[in-house]
Write a structure and sequence with these properties.
The chain is α/β, with parallel strands linked by helices and 189 residues long. The protein has one domain: Rossmann fold (3-Layer(aba) Sandwich). It contains nine helices and nine strands. The protein has helices at 4-12, 24-33, 49-59, 71-75, 79-87, 118-125, 136-147, 170-174, 176-187; strands spanning 2-3, 19-23, 39-42, 65-70, 92-98, 101-102, 108-109, 129-133, 153-160. The protein starts with a strand and ends with a helix.
């Protein structure tokens, strides 16, 4: 298993100007690792991060869009995989951090914890490319080639959580200033 923050650091190293939609705990961790106006924390409706990312990918087809999703969040909206596959945005990369829990809600275990094949679900939904990584070295090595593919691409990261954020700053996450920062960054593209 990998640490989520180490996976995010590897992704940040090749991010360039990608738009990143990060959900719940991942949003705090991502902002610490790769602060940017192009970060959109997606919270408030579990499972909707991938739908937000799809809209951005379709609206901004010349910019890569990453969604940093949780396994529990994706389970709340599995239909998004079919919708994404049907829309087939070439610029969408869906990273699913699989730790087997609803981490944002007290780390309650997922049903069928450890028995879910998210890459398999994505392929069954119509994704051409879907991968699973459980070793940081192989993920880091494959990342440039994976990001060179036409999307949509789903990448499952079998992870353990990284260190706890200094604090869960929900005022930042839900605040007008964060949304304004994102809008300004999008307008500047």
């Amino acid at each position: 298993m990998m640490r989520r923050d180490e996976c995010f650091a590897a992704l940040a190293a090749v991010r360039d100007n990608a738009i990143v939609v990060a959900t719940y705990t991942s949003a705090f961790e991502w902002e610490r690792i790769s602060p940017s106006g192009l970060n959109l924390p997606a919270t408030g409706a579990m499972g909707q991060g991938s739908s937000h990312a799809l809209g951005l990918a379709l609206g901004l087809p010349h910019h890569r869009v990453f969604v940093l999703d949780g396994d529990g969040a994706l389970l709340m909206n599995l239909g998004t995989l079919v919708t994404i596959a049907n829309a087939a945005p070439k610029n969408l990369f869906h990273f699913v951090c699989e730790n087997g829990t609803y981490e944002a809600n007290g780390s309650h275990p997922l049903p069928n914890q450890g028995g879910i094949d998210f890459a398999g679900l994505a392929r069954a939904a119509g994704f051409t490319h879907a991968y699973t990584f459980d070793e940081l070295e192989s993920f880091t090595e494959a990342l440039p080639d994976v990001l060179a593919l036409d999307g949509p691409v789903l990448i499952t990261l079998k992870v353990v959580p990284g260190p706890e954020p200094v604090k869960y700053d929900y005022l930042w996450m839900h605040g007008d200033a964060t949304r304004a920062r994102f809008q300004s960054a999008i307008d500047a593209l």
